[in-house]
């Protein structure tokens, strides 16, 4: 019997996600690993990052639109400060490609 956890770092998680994606099991894996609240929080985080990168709304406006505290928006902003401009552009491009159009 092992006294150490099987998975110990972020890279282990990423490898699991890659493997699940390759096998067409990504949605099932994430649904099993995350609670409904965690999934909702992740979607909120995607919106926060998108709106911050888009730059059309203030942090307060984003907070009001998403129903989250300004501190939550600030944490997202601080996270983006650690990204290079290239990483920000890639992330904005990815998020823009996924953005749903309410008129469709």
From TrEMBL:
Its main location: cytoplasm. Keywords: Cytoplasm, DNA-binding, Repressor, Transcription, Transcription regulation. It is found in: Cytoplasm. Residues 59-82 bind DNA. The keyword Protein biosynthesis does not apply. InterPro entries: Trp_repress (IPR000831), Trp_repress_bac (IPR013335), Trp_repressor/repl_initiator (IPR010921), TrpR-like_sf (IPR038116). One of its GO terms (molecular function) is sequence-specific DNA binding. One of its GO terms (biological process) is negative regulation of DNA-templated transcription. The keyword GTP-binding does not apply. It comes from the Bacteria. One of its GO terms (cellular component) is cytoplasm. Pfam families: Trp_repressor. Belongs to the TrpR family. HAMAP family: Trp_repressor. This protein is an aporepressor. When complexed with L-tryptophan it binds the operator region of the trp operon and prevents the initiation of transcription. Homodimer. This is Trp operon repressor homolog. It comes from Vibrio aerogenes CECT 7868.
């Amino acid at each position: 019997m092992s006294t150490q956890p099987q998975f110990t770092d972020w890279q282990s998680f990423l490898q699991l996600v890659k493997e699940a994606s390759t096998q067409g099991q990504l949605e099932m894996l994430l649904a099993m690993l995350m609670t409904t609240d965690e999934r909702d929080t992740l979607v909120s985080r995607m919106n926060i990052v998108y709106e911050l990168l888009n730059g059309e709304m203030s942090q307060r406006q984003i907070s009001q639109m998403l129903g989250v505290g300004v501190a939550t928006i600030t944490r997202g902003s601080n996270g983006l400060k650690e990204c290079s401009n290239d990483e920000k552009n890639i992330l904005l491009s990815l998020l823009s490609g996924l953005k749903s159009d309410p008129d469709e």
